[in-house]
Q: What sequence folds into this?
């Protein structure tokens, strides 16, 4: 079990940690600030700094078999640390912050476009959601204008926890059909964009929509009869 520090505070850039296990997939720590690929958000990159002064470059972070198992994938050819080694785990903050901004923006997009979300993906500087919108056409300019209004309005973004049973009683909270909410531990983490969006989400988010900055809708693609893919990018 790894203590998932990013879950309580997405702004943590580094932490002290101890190596628990090392195998061909990568390095497991007792605690980490590295977000593992999941829920449409890519895994973090960064460094594991050893007390000797040497660093191990982490090129990806993956989820292991258990729900709280995080695998730090080292650059090929890295000399690996022994279990028990104390180190400092440090993410590439600039990249993660862009991912947090775009991820949070997809919550806004969810509220702007009607229809069920059938898929989504955040990448560095871009993001997309696929919507099931039978018979409707989506307007690029209108969506961009609504998104940028919500961004500049400065809505607070906060986590909230509910029990699995409370979530089961409110299935309408699950907007994203392709992304299962993180559950099974008895409680589920909801992300609330005050007055805009509330849904289960295990990703990392900015604290206020203003932090997202201006965005553009770069493209709306047809993906089948009633599926529309809305693609966003940062305006600057
Ligand atoms: Zn989210």
A:
């Amino acid at each position: 079990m790894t203590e998932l520090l990013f879950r309580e505070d997405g702004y943590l850039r580094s932490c002290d940690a101890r190596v628990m296990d090392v195998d061909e997939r990568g390095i497991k720590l007792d605690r980490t600030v590295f977000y593992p690929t999941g829920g449409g958000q890519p895994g973090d990159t960064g460094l594991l700094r050893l007390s000797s002064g040497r660093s191990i470059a982490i090129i990806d972070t993956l989820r292991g078999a258990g729900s709280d198992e995080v695998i730090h994938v080292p650059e090929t050819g890295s000399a690996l640390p022994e279990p028990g080694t104390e180190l400092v785990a440090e993410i590439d903050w600039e990249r993660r912050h862009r991912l947090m901004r775009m991820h949070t923006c997809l919550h806004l997009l969810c509220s702007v476009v009607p229809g069920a979300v059938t898929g989504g993906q955040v990448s560095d500087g871009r993001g997309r959601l696929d919507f099931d919108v039978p018979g409707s056409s989506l307007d690029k300019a209108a969506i961009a204008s609504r998104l940028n209004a919500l961004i500049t309005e400065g809505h607070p973004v906060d986590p909230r926890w509910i029990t699995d049973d409370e979530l089961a009683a409110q299935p309408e909270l699950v907007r994203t059909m392709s992304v299962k909410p993180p559950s099974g531990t008895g409680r589920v983490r909801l992300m609330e964009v005050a007055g805009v969006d509330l849904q289960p989400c295990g990703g990392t988010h900015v604290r206020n929509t203003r932090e997202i900055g201006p965005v553009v809708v770069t493209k709306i693609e047809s993906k089948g009869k009633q599926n529309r893919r809305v693609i966003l990018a940062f305006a600057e």
